[in-house]
Amino acid sequence: MNIWEIIIISLIKILIIVVLMLLSVAYLVYFERKISAWVQNRVGPNRVGWLGLLQPFADVFKLLLKEDIVPDAANKPLHTLAPFIALFVSFATYAVIPIGPPIEVFGYKINLVVADVNIGVLYVFALTSLGVYGITFAGWSSGSKYSLLGGIRSSAQMISYEVSMGFSIAGVLLMSQSLSPMKIVESQYGWMWNAIVQPIGFITFVVSAFAETNRLPFDLPEAEPELVGGYHTEYSSFKFAGFFLAEYANMIIASGMIVTLYLGGWQVPYIDKLGLSTTLTTIIQVAAFLFKMGALLFFFIWVRWSIPRFRYDQLMNLGWKVMFPLALANLIWVALLIMIFNL
Amino acid sequence: MPSKKREKDLNIFEKLYIPEIAKGMALTLKNMFRPNVTLQYPEVKFEPPASYRGRPVLVQENNGVERCVACGLCSRVCPALAIEVQASETDLEKERYPVKFEINMLRCIFCGFCEEVCPEEAIVMSKDYELVFKNRKDAIFGKDKLLVPIENLKDRLEFLRKFK
Known about the structure:
- The complex is a heterodimer of chains A (343) and B (164).
- Chain A is mainly α and 343 residues long.
- Chain A has one domain (54-341).
- Chain A has helices at residues 3-39, 55-64, 76-93, 120-141, 145-176, 181-186, 194-197, 199-212, 224-227, 237-261, 278-304, 312-341; strands at 103-105, 108-110.
- In chain B, a hairpin with a 6-residue loop joins strand 2 (83-89) and strand 3 (96-104).
- The A-B interface holds A 35, 37-43, 302-303, 305-307 and B 21, 24-25, 27-29, 31-32, 34-38, 40.
C-alpha cells in the first residue's frame, strides 16, 4: 500500500470513529436519563421525537445557545483551555481500541482500529494522566473556592486510582506479553478471558475505572449537594457542554478499555468451531464487542443509581489502602499462574 | 426483637459490603421492570379527589340563580382580601343577591375559609387547578367565570356535609 492509500484509509477510519463517538456520547446522555427514570419508576424524556430519541439534539442546542459567562477573577486562557484538554483526551484515547479482527476489504488488509501502535496501553495511560490536567486547570482557573476544592479533590482522586489501575494492567501484560491492544485481545482465546483468569485484577480495574471517570460512587468532586458542581461550577454554554461530553466520553473509553483488557475484546468463545464464513464471523465479533461495551455502560449507569457516594477520606482510604494492595496481590497471583502452568 | 448488628460483629464478607451492594443493585434492577407512575400531562389530566381545594366557585342552582345572598362574610374572612361583594335587592324569596361578585385570583391563596364561613353553602372550592391569564385584568374573575352549575359540584357538597 502506498502512502496515499494509507492516508485515505486512516482518514475514513478517523471520520467514522469521531462521528460514532459524538453520537454515542450524546445518546449515552439520553440513555442515562431513560435508565435512571426506569429505576425510579418514571418515564424519562419522551416528548422530543419518537420516544424522546431527539432529546440529545435539543440538549446540545440549548447548551450552545446559552450565554458564555466567565468570572472576573478567572484566568481566561486556562479557563478556556481546560474543557478542550478534557475533550481532546477523551476523543484521542479511542484511537487505539480495536473493534474487531483484521478484515479484507477490496483487497486491502485493514485493522479495525484507527492506530495500531504496539504501545497502545501505554498511550492510553499517558492520555488519562493528561486528563487530570484538564480538571486541575478548570478548578484552579475559575477563581472560586468551590471550583478549587472540587478540582483539587478530583485530581487527587484520579491520580490515586491511576496507581492501582496501572498495577492491574501489569497483571494483564504479564499474561499477554505485549502492550498492543490487538495482541492482548488475541491472547484471550476460548474461555481464557482475563476477567476469569485474574478476577481480583478485574475488580480492581473496574473500581479504578469508576474513580477515574468521576462516576458515582466516587463522584464527590462534582456532586451537587456537596460542592455545587465542583470543578465545573463556573462554566456555562459550550465549555460546560465540553466537560459534560468529556465525562461521558471518558465513560465510553473506560468501558472500551475494560472490554479490551479483561472481557476478551471482540472474541466470542469457540466461534470458529461453527464454521461460518469470514465476513459473518467478523460481523458477529464486532457486534459482540459493541454488545459488551453496551452492557458495561449499562452497568456504569446502574451502579450510579444504586449506591451511595463515598466520603472523600473513605475514597482515598479505599484507593491507597485497599485497591493498591489488592492490585499487588493480583500481580503475585498472575506470576504464580504463569510459573505453574508455564504459560 | 433481634438487635441490630454492630460494626464489630460483621463477618469479613459483610465488611466488604458486597452483599449490601448486591442487594441494592438487585433492588434497582427489580424496579426497572415495575410499571411507572408517570401521568402523561397534558394528554391525561390529574383528577383530584373530592377533598381537593381548587379554585373557589359560586354554586348555581338548577333554575339559573346563584345561592349567594351577598352577606359579605366570605369577603370579611378572606385572609388575602381577594373577594369583593356588592349586594342589591331582589324579588326572590332570598331577598338579597350579589350584583357584583369578584374574586381576584392573583390574591386568592386557596385556603378555603370563604367556603367554611358561608352560611348558604354558596361558594365552594372546586377541583379546577388550571388557571392561566395573560394580563392582570383577566385575573379578576367576575360572576360569569365563577358560576358553576350544582351538578358539577355534587361530590364537593357531599364531602362538606360529611366532614365539615
